[in-house]
């Protein structure tokens, strides 16, 4: 998940007490072994961005079973809140989640906050120290667990990340240390790339079995597939790929993760609630055919990229670009459905703008697929763009009652 650039100035966290730093040790090997058993299913998670306009009191905690506070960033010595953020929102977030029995988790890292992750887990002593630092913050503020949001393991992401060929191996060691430190009752989650975990050869690991025993859940982030960096327009989060387009989709990504040995019942399918805006060269939509499949998603780009490429689903309705039920384009926009990728998009011919997003229908399709594949549930990025019908579609899909 890509987030706005954060200031390089970070607020130092308050000194932590001995009690907050004391790790919890699993009572037996049996406790750890139970992590191989499926955790609770039908989960609906949401990432709550602390930098956004949505206050903790406005977050839809009642519609989620897992709530992620996004985020704290890494520093050379541990973690910190970004500049301008205080523990006031942290406390309000945890209280809001607990009030409706949604489990609050602390997200660490992210697009701009993963600079030091590689270094912090590079040696045995550093792994132990970092695990204790995370536990201290979790205990101090009442979180139920932690989420490691490492989007580019073993690869460069934001441009200034520390990178090592040993990142994947060290991560496997770290989640084991993290479980031993956090004990059997705390939740451990990782937000991981759609393409899998990058190994020392810069290819996705063929096996992820080493990570599974220590993690309760992972979210597979199947979004940002097409964006401002792409050669054509395309779906932000395609359910299915089209030959000739990107080979990454919900179906291909989940298939690859399962083939790597990660348990289906520990996987949350990431679903975006934000869009990507593209300029097009033409004021007409052209149908293309790839391998016998017809698609509307891949249009030739215009010369000038939009200044602000992101809009949430909720904003599309508020701006009256979409009708309240999300079924009809408005204000010069026409809604299209691409049957090849099972995603909607809006097109404005007079402005030559193409906007890819997820809606109630695509969300329901993805949640239904999560149920079909035996996944643990879905996870929205982020809470600010999700509407009540979006949450309802996810719930219905996981229950097997969604009808497109």
Automatic annotation (TrEMBL):
InterPro entries per the UniProt record, alphabetical: Chitinase_II/V-like_cat, Chitinase_insertion_sf, GH, Glyco_hydro18_cat, Glyco_hydro_18_chit_AS, Glycosyl_Hydrlase_18
Signal peptide positions on this chain: 1-19
Catalytic activity: Random endo-hydrolysis of N-acetyl-beta-D-glucosaminide (1->4)-beta-linkages in chitin and chitodextrins
One GO BP annotation of this record: polysaccharide catabolic process
GO molecular function: chitin binding; endochitinase activity
Protein keywords: Carbohydrate metabolism, Chitin degradation, Glycosidase, Hydrolase, Polysaccharide degradation, Signal
Protein name: Chitinase
Classification of source organism: Eukaryota, Fungi, Dikarya, Basidiomycota, Pucciniomycotina
């Amino acid at each position: 998940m890509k987030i706005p650039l954060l200031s390089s100035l970070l607020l130092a966290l308050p000194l932590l007490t001995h009690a907050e730093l004391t790790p919890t040790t699993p009572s037996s090997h049996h406790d750890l072994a139970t992590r191989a058993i499926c955790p609770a299913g039908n989960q609906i998670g949401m990432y709550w961005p602390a930098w956004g306009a949505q206050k903790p009191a406005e977050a839809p905690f009642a519609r989620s079973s897992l709530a992620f506070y996004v985020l704290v960033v890494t520093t050379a010595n541990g973690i910190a809140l970004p500049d301008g953020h205080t523990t006031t929102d942290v406390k309000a977030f945890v209280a809001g989640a607990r009030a409706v029995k949604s489990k609050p988790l602390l997200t660490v890292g992210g697009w701009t906050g993963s600079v030091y992750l590689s270094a912090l887990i590079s040696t045995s002593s550093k792994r132990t120290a970092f695990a204790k630092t995370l536990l201290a913050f979790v205990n101090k503020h009442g979180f139920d667990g932690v989420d490691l949001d490492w989007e580019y393991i073993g690869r460069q992401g934001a441009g200034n990340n520390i990178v090592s060929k040993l990142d994947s191996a060290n991560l496997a060691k770290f989640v084991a240390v993290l479980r031993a430190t956090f004990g059997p009752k705390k939740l451990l989650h990782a937000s991981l790339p759609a393409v899998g975990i990058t190994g020392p050869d810069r290819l996705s690991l063929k096996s992820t079995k080493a990570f599974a025993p220590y993690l309760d859940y992972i979210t597979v982030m199947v979004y940002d597939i097409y964006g401002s960096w792409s050669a054509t327009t395309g779906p932000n989060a395609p359910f299915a790929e089209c030959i000739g387009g990107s080979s990454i989709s919900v179906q291909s990504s989940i298939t690859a993760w399962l083939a790597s040995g990660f348990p289906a019942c520990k996987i949350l399918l990431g679903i975006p609630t934000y869009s990507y805006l593209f300029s097009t060269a033409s004021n007409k939509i052209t149908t293309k055919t790839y391998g016998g499949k017809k698609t509307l998603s891949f249009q030739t780009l215009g010369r000038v990229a939009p200044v602000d490429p992101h809009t949430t689903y909720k904003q599309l309705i508020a701006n009256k670009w979409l009708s309240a039920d999300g079924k009809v384009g408005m204000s010069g926009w026409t809604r299209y459905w691409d049957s090849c990728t099972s995603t909607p998009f809006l097109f404005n011919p007079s402005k030559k703008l193409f906007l890819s997003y997820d809606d109630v229908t695509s969300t329901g399709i993805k949640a239904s697929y999560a149920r079909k594949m035996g996944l643990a549930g879905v996870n929205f990025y982020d809470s600010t763009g999700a509407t009540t019908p979006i949450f309802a579609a996810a719930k219905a899909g996981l229950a097997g009652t969604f009808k497109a």
